Amino acid sequence: MKALLMNEWIKLYKRRSTWLMFILTIIVVAGFGWVNRTTEALGVSVEMNQWTFVNSAMYISSLVGLFSMIVAARIVSQEVQWGTMKLMLLRPFARWKFLLSKLLVVVFFSLIIMVLLVLTAILVGGIFFGFSSPMEEASWTMEGREYTTSTLLLTTLTFLFKWLHMLTFSIISFVLSAITLSNAFSLGISLFLFFTGSSLTFFLAANYEWGKYILFANSDLTQYINGAALEGLTLVGSFVIVLIYLSLFLVSAFLVFQKRDVHA
Question: Which label site among 67, 106, 217, 246 has the fewest CB atoms less than 10 Å from its CB?
Answer without folding.
Answer: 246
